[in-house]
Design a protein that fits this description.
The complex is a heterodimer of chains A (64) and B (180). With 64 residues, chain A is mostly helical. Helices cover 75% and strands 0% of the residues of chain A. Chain B is of the alpha+beta class and 180 residues long. Chain B has one domain. Chain B is built from 3 helices and 8 strands. Chain B has an 8-stranded mixed beta sheet, with helices on one face. In chain B, strand 2 and strand 3 form a beta hairpin. The chains are: A mainly alpha (64), B alpha+beta (180).
């Protein structure tokens, strides 16, 4: 990674440290209510299957 | 077309301690600026523990993010570079997480699709891109599988982002994971 990019990331993390701010619950609810993936995963079995498939894709991409 | 450049981003204003949100000001074409908030929050706790949703937009009247807002940004490249740099910051601190973005409408989904495609080489240094399609099962009686409410029973299926897909052949959902 370029040093300049890593420096910008470090800058954001420095600002975060000790800022004392956290996200509010309404933002979390909004994210979920607008998200189509959360609507098509209806139960723990489907979630487990999706996670397994996602991990398999990540594993493939890691090997490329 | 959007060109991502992590060296040309907006200065953060507020950043949450747990990196769950960041705000910045984006200049708009009609003069002035709009305050944009980026949220990265758990998607389906506890069903999908390692999938987080990224959303962004200006504040609506009730103080929440309006991710359907249409804004004429003066510099779209800088806006999306800022958003993705923030996602990269989050993923460096949480490298087991995969971030998902949902085009709230076809225009946004098209924008994301084009952004992934046109910045393939640049983003490949930082992220692994994943596309998710919804599939339906065809039953032996040639009917499609329906759920209890009579709606199509969609199954989301992720795959490595196929850069050969046409820009109009959108995924239903876009995800990215930190490059190891």
């Amino acid at each position: 990674m370029k040093e300049k990019v890593q420096n910008k990331i470090n800058h954001i993390r420095e600002l975060a440290k000790g800022s004392g701010m956290i996200s509010n619950s309404s933002d979390r609810k909004l994210s979920q209510s607008n998200d189509s993936l959360s609507k098509v995963i209806r139960n723990p079995q489907e979630a487990t299957l999706f996670c397994a498939e996602l991990n398999a894709v990540i594993s493939i991409l890691n090997k490329q | 077309m959007i060109t991502i450049d992590f060296e040309d981003v907006f200065e953060p204003i507020d950043v949450a301690e747990d990196l769950s949100f960041m705000t910045f000001n984006s200049f708009i074409k009609s003069n002035g600026y709009v305050n944009i908030k980026i949220n990265i929050t758990p998607l389906l706790e506890p069903l999908l523990p390692n999938v987080y949703n990224l959303s962004f937009g200006p504040y609506s009247k009730n103080g929440e993010i309006d991710d359907f807002a249409k804004i004429n940004h003066s510099d779209k490249n800088k806006v999306f570079s800022t958003i993705l740099l923030y996602a990269l910051t989050f993923l460096q601190a949480n490298n087991e997480i995969t971030i998902g973005i949902d085009g709230s409408d076809d225009i946004r989904a098209y924008l994301y699709h084009r952004m992934f495609k046109s910045n393939k080489e640049y983003l490949a240094d930082y992220f692994m891109a994943i596309g998710v399609d919804w599939y339906l099962r065809l039953l032996r009686n040639d009917q499609i599988e329906l759920d209890v409410s009579g709606s199509p029973f969609f199954k989301p299926k992720p795959e490595p982002f196929n850069y050969n897909r046409a820009s109009i052949d959108l995924y239903r959902y876009y995800m990215f994971h930190l490059k190891k």
